[in-house]
Each structure stands twice: as structure tokens, then as C-alpha cells.
């Protein structure tokens, strides 16, 4: 049976008092790769932020990886985020430590204790993004594409039920975007569920998949020829 990892019903997304999106009805099932597209300012980031608990859901219903977004408490947010892998446009790596220590930092912060288990997990996720040899580099010694691969590795550490990627190729040139997209595709083919906000239509054409569009304060599914 297909399992729902995200469902919003008649939801409205606000930034303070401003209504950004209304009557949002969407469902994402385990294993799907879903794009979220829309012109700048149409609410993609606001939508993503609501999903990872950065903006409260105050209208409608929302459940994500078994958390109810309407009743989500501040203290539950770190636990929700452990079940999500979040990837940002600007990587958000810690520049004062190397790649391995960036990953170790997250493992320790999420309750891992066993040194060997942590080392193994770091090797494993670096392998998944093709960065096994770069563990001792500092983020600033890596290209943008390499930094984003590390950010994806970091998102994978706790085996997330859903990966939320907000414009993951937004800071990358077209060739590097394709390379990062190949990594995301491989992860998706491995069974991971991914929601990716993007305005990169070239990627959509190259890697067609289910697509949601933000437009006119609404979110709706589009078929590729209409995007
Ligand atoms: N912190 C904030 N406070 C108030 N309004 C905000 C805030 N952040 C965004 N907005 C407004 O919410 C609307 C949607 O912005 P959002 O960043 O979600 O769009 P977006 O589709 O992700 O755009 P982009 O592609 O440029 O990132 C915009 O009108 C924006 O001005």
C-alpha cells in the first residue's frame, strides 16, 4: 500500500498577516519525486518553511511524516526535522570545520553516540553523493556543486522520510546543476521521497516528474507541457 508522507487539506500559508497561498490540497506519497515550481515571490519558500516548521500552519490541515502541522509544538520541531532532510540553495555548511566534522556535528546533535557507527554513517552518506575523498576538506575549499553534495549527504544522515530541497541548484551553473540533480535522482531511485522547489525549467524538462505549481496564491498539479 502506498504510504502518504505529506498531506495538506484546505491549508493556507501566511507570512505574518499576508496570505501567500490558499486552499492548498496536496499529497505526496512515499517514493515520489515532486517538483514545486512558480515564479519568484509566488510562495515556494513559504510553502517549504511551513513544512519544516519554520512558519506555523494556522489554517486547514497538514500532516507530514506523522506530525500534525496544526498542533506542532516548538519543542517538537527538532524531532520533525530529524525525520526530514532539508537542503537549501546556499548550502548552510559550517565553514569553521571540515566536511566530516560538519556531518559529525549533525549526528551528535541528533543523539548519535557510538563513534564507529558515526564514522560508518559518514562514509556511507559521502559515498552516496560521490564525495568519499573530500571528507577532510573545509567547505570553502570545495566548489559550489561539491558543497551542495555535502549538504545532500548531511540531509541523508538520519535516513529521512522526506527530503525538502529549496532551490538546491539555485546557486549553481547549468552543468553543475545537472550533476547535483543526478545525485538527487540517484537518491530518489534508491527509494527516497523528495520535494524540490525550483525555477530551473531546464531540469524539469531533462528529468520530468510530478510537478506542483504556485501561481495566483494557489498550488496545483500541472502536466509538463503546461509548465
Ligand atoms: N519573512 C517574511 N515576512 C513577510 N513577508 C515575506 C517574508 N518572506 C517572504 N515574504 C513574502 O512572501 C511572498 C512569497 O515569498 P517566497 O519567498 O515564499 O516566494 P518564492 O516563490 O520562494 O520566491 P523565490 O523564488 O524568489 O525564492 C513574497 O511576496 C514575499 O515578499
TrEMBL record:
The keyword ATP-binding applies. GO terms for molecular function: ATP binding; ATP hydrolysis activity; transmembrane transporter activity. One of its GO terms (cellular component) is plasma membrane. InterPro entries: AAA+_ATPase, ABC_transporter-like_ATP-bd, ABC_transporter-like_CS, ABC_transpr_LolD-like, P-loop_NTPase. Residues 6-227 form the ABC transporter domain. The keyword Ion transport does not apply. Pfam families: ABC_tran. Keywords: ATP-binding, Nucleotide-binding. This is Phosphonate ABC transporter ATP-binding protein. It comes from Salinimicrobium marinum.
Amino acid at each position: 500500500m502506498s504510504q502518504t508522507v505529506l498531506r495538506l487539506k484546505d491549508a493556507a500559508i501566511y507570512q505574518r498577516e499576508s496570505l501567500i497561498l490558499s486552499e492548498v490540497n496536496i499529497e505526496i506519497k512515499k517514493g515520489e519525486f515532486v517538483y514545486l515550481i512558480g515564479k519568484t515571490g509566488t510562495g515556494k519558500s513559504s510553502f517549504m518553511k511551513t513544512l519544516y516548521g519554520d512558519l506555523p500552519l494556522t489554517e486547514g490541515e497538514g500532516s507530514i511524516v506523522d506530525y500534525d502541522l496544526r498542533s506542532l509544538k516548538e519543542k517538537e520541531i527538532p524531532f520533525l526535522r530529524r525525520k526530514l532532510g532539508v537542503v537549501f540553495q546556499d548550502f548552510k555548511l559550517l565553514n569553521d570545520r571540515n566536511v566530516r566534522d560538519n556531518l559529525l556535528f549533525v549526528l551528535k546533535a541528533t543523539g548519535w553516540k557510538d563513534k564507529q557507527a558515526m564514522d560508518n554513517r559518514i562514509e556511507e552518506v559521502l559515498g552516496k553523493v560521490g564525495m568519499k575523498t573530500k571528507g577532510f576538506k573545509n567547505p570553502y575549499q570545495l566548489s559550489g556543486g561539491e558543497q551542495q553534495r555535502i549538504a545532500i549527504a548531511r540531509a541523508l544522515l538520519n535516513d529521512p522520510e522526506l527530503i525538502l530541497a529549496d532551490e538546491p541548484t539555485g546557486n549553481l551553473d547549468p552543468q553543475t546543476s545537472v550533476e547535483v540533480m543526478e545525485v538527487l535522482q540517484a537518491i530518489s531511485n534508491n527509494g527516497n521521497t523528495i520535494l524540490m522547489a525550483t525555477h530551473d525549467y531546464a531540469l524539469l524538462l531533462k528529468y520530468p516528474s510530478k510537478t506542483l505549481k504556485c501561481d495566483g496564491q494557489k498550488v496545483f498539479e500541472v502536466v509538463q507541457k503546461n509548465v
